[in-house]
Fold this sequence. Notes:
The structure is a single chain. This protein has helices at residues 17-28, 35-45, 48-58, 65-75, 94-106, 120-128, 168-191, 206-223; strands at residues 5-10, 31-34, 85-88, 110-117, 130-132, 139-141, 196-200. It is globular, with a radius of gyration of 17 Å. The longest helix has 24 residues, at 168-191. α5 (94-106) crosses α7 (168-191). It has a domain at 5-118 and 179-223: 3-Layer(aba) Sandwich (Rossmann fold). By secondary structure, the chain is α/β, with parallel strands linked by helices. Helix content is 48%, strand content 14%.
Amino acid sequence: xxxxxxxxxxxxxxxGKGTQAKLLRQALGMAHISTGxxxxxxxxxxxxxxxxxxxxxxxxxxxxxxLVNRMVDDRIAQPDAANGFILDGYPRxxxxxxxxxxxxxxxxxxxxxxxxxVDYNVIIARLSGRRQCxxxxxLYSLSPxxxxxxxxxxxxxxxxxxxxxDREEVVVQRLKAYDSQTAPVLExxxxxxxxxxxxxxxxxxxxxxxxxxEELIGKEFASGSGQA
Length: 228
């Protein structure tokens, strides 16, 4: 029986899911699966699918479930996810959550949900002040994680850009989409029997938040709980 663990990082855009996933990946040895990163890779490829996805993402909308589900299903079958995986940005709709629930139960994967809570005003300021290197993908903010040279990547010297989905008007639309389509996913997962924890995602160093999450999920997986 496969009993690999799964951590579902839940929260609105800009709540710090990506940062926490990277920290926890190193600490727990689990694969980091970001649907946002996978979709942006398709956009960068410039193929027909990438062009269709680009239009949706630039408007702050949600990519169709069928496409996202297929990408995630393929991704968790990769060798680096054999010891467990962290889902960052998935599921985003109840339909996606139903499919994930089926996959987790069928493959006897134990899952725990962590909900990062952040005030929306903080999110808008955080995302609209975020910059990214177009080459290596490194993320910066105007504060506190600013680059050594303003608007220039510390790693390869590239001029930093504002991602289309980080523009303030798009952030507001993304939060509206989250409220209407994604927030109900948390209630679905709770109702399906998965352990769910609320974690304050602002006002503390990311490392402190990661330590709290690690302690919470460590207890769950050690005790053998987590719906499977």
